[in-house]
Amino acid sequence: MERDFGGFKGVLIIGLGLIGGSIAVSLKKRGFKGKIYGFDLNLDRVNKAVEIGAVDKGFTDYSEVPWENIDLVIISTPVKTFTKIATDIKKYLKGKTLVTDVGSVKGDLVKQLEEILKPNIFIGGHPIAGTEKEGVENAVVDLFNGKKVILTIDHEDEFTQKLEKFWVDLGSKVEVMDPYLHDFVFAAVSHLPHAVAFSLVDTLIELSDEKNIDLFLYPGAGFKDFTRIAASSPTVWKDIFIQNKKEVLHTIDKFIESMNKLRDAVEKEEEEKLLNILYESRERRLSLD
Amino acid sequence: MERDFGGFKGVLIIGLGLIGGSIAVSLKKRGFKGKIYGFDLNLDRVNKAVEIGAVDKGFTDYSEVPWENIDLVIISTPVKTFTKIATDIKKYLKGKTLVTDVGSVKGDLVKQLEEILKPNIFIGGHPIAGTEKEGVENAVVDLFNGKKVILTIDHEDEFTQKLEKFWVDLGSKVEVMDPYLHDFVFAAVSHLPHAVAFSLVDTLIELSDEKNIDLFLYPGAGFKDFTRIAASSPTVWKDIFIQNKKEVLHTIDKFIESMNKLRDAVEKEEEEKLLNILYESRERRLSLD
After folding, report:
1. ipTM over 0.95 threshold
2. Pick from B172, B238, B195, B239: which is nearest to B27 by CA?
3. Is the four-CA dihedral B198, B204, B209, B213 of positive or negative sign?
4. What is the distance between the alpha carbons of residues A233 and B220, in angstroms, rounded to a whole number?
């Protein structure tokens, strides 16, 4: 099928960070024929995005955006800002303009945005791609190629088909998921591991103080890989943890249960039980490769 | 200085696994002029080690080993077997033969081995190198090159100097450490991260059951790296956790405290507190790169 990115003619990317920037440069590289507009409250980011050719035109004021040319808005700011942005742009949207996002939290937020943006259509999106880096200057061409994108679609129509085609033409594998299930799944596979990585580094800081030795001088096998994601953006992750609080707390509680199960088996020297936990985890992990 | 590997003429490697095998192939590759003997209770492993040319001669029975030619014994079996091995080989050792090991746990074990092997000298060793793979067939040439080796030396003498030179000539950076401090340090930087990785995968198995969804189909950014070490050997790690029980439990308890600190900040939406934890961890982690 022709690579038409769902037939959108004008895309406005709100938030010129790593993800927004990567959408822009990937669209350009893959031959998107429409216009790409960028918006950010930070003028430096807008200038940078224009300078590197990611966007055709950039704005820091919604009233200056040529809304009549825009049929797709992609919100790619921290999730915390979404409802304010939706409220701010609502009055400018023309009838057929579709709004989507690339945030890591869905659930209630999707329902709120649907409500605020009515009669315009909002579809939640979450590309499972990223790096620890931030900013449009670190934008990666084809960041989404071969990666999953979750869309919170509950019924297929003209809009959802266009948005699916948009992501397919960026090389992504589209998967439709209920927004609440999305939050459970990504709390488990992404938010929890980040919380764990941050806490593990925090523990090593505390333990270093305890014995007055710099434990970070002894990064054992796997330790660097293991804590790499602890270098992720604190502001982004603070917001994700709080926005997806219910599921994040649930997965942390389950994880602490698992840690205590292993801890007790070690304390009681229950070798069989310990082996079972380790074998089961190992087998499941190996199945990923 | 000449690469003489401390002047040892005959090395016996007990335990032809990944580490023992890698010492053998690295010695060969770097021009060790002495003989390399291998011992393993498993005849297949011995045959494999001879077949790939890792060892000059292999044995499954201590009484057949040419002990008169051996001045260095390296125990590279699971830590659990160390005291039995020391007891078994004691009667064969000639006066000047030095015994060392490559185990991940030191502490009391070093004291026990020193006691058992008297009047021969035992020095605990721990090369900070490895892969998730097992067996002599996965031996890696120069596995120890550029890596740290911890030696539990409390005073310098002829023996310790020879052993230090042995490792230096394998390319390692020798660091002397008290055996109890060693166990604290590696509980924190290695044993705890392994416990966490196993528990994280265990949590995802439990959560998959809870919602009847296969969460392993959604390995988010960093998840694979993060849980890679959960594919490590269950028997090896069961033994390490139990052998280093005191420090492992202590570091797990500290880690659960850290997780609960983060959990509470999320629950109470204490944004500043949460940000502080994340920033501090991020900064410390970035300092590793």
Report:
1. no
2. B172
3. negative
4. 16
Identify all chain A residues contacting B284, using CB atoms and an 8 Å cutoff.
201, 204-205, 216
Considering only CB atoms, which chain A residues are within 8 Å of B236?
Answer: none
**Which uninterrupted H or E stretch holds B103?**
none
Question: In B204-288, where do the E strands start and end?
Answer: none
Q: Enumerate the residues of chain A whose CB falls inside 8 A of the CB of residue B238.
A: 271, 274-275, 278
> Which two three-digit tokens encode residue B265?
């900040």
> What pLDDT is recorded for position B205?
95
Closest to A123 measured CA to CA, from A148, A168, A159, A90: A159
Residues of A whose CB is below 8 A from B206: 254, 257-258
Of B128, B200, B216, Cβ closest to residue A255:
B200
- The closest CB to that of B201, out of A242, A256, A284, belongs to A284
For residues B178 and B110, the answer to whether their CB atoms sit within 8 Å is no
Residue A221, pLDDT score: 59
Q: What is the pLDDT of residue B115?
A: 97
Residue type for B261, please? K
Sign of CA dihedral A20, A25, A27, A33: positive
Tell me how far apart the alpha carbons of residues A264 and A285 are, in angstroms, rounded to a whole number. Answer: 22
Report the amino acid identity of residue B137. E
Res. B289: pLDDT tops 90: no
Q: How far apart are CA A132 and CA A140, in angstroms?
A: 12
Compute and round to an integer the Cα radius of gyration of chain B: 22
pTM of the model: 0.85
Cα distance between residue A245 and residue A79, in whole Å: 13
For residue B192, what are the contacts with CB-CB under 8 A and spacing of at least 6?
A: A200, A203, B248, B251, B252, B255
Between chain A and chain B, how many beta carbons pairs sit less than 8 Å apart? 297
What pLDDT is recorded for position B31? Answer: 96
Give the model confidence (pLDDT) of B196-220 as tens digits.
999 999 999 999 999 999 999 887 6
Contact A221 B251 (CB under 8 A): no
* Residue A97 identity: T
Q: Cα(A25)–Cα(A142) distance, rounded to whole angstroms?
A: 8
In angstroms, rounded to a whole number, what is the distance separating the alpha carbons of residues B276 and B201? 27
Predicted confidence (pLDDT) per residue in A261-274, tens digit: 999 999 999 999 99
Q: Give the span between the Cα atoms of A196 and B254, in whole angstroms.
A: 13
| Element holding A255 (H helix, E strand) | helix A245-267
Q: Which two tokens stand for residue A277?
A: 């936990």
What three-state secondary structure class fits A154? Answer: coil
What pLDDT, in 10s, does the model give residues A165-216? 999 999 999 999 999 999 999 999 999 999 999 999 999 999 999 999 999 9
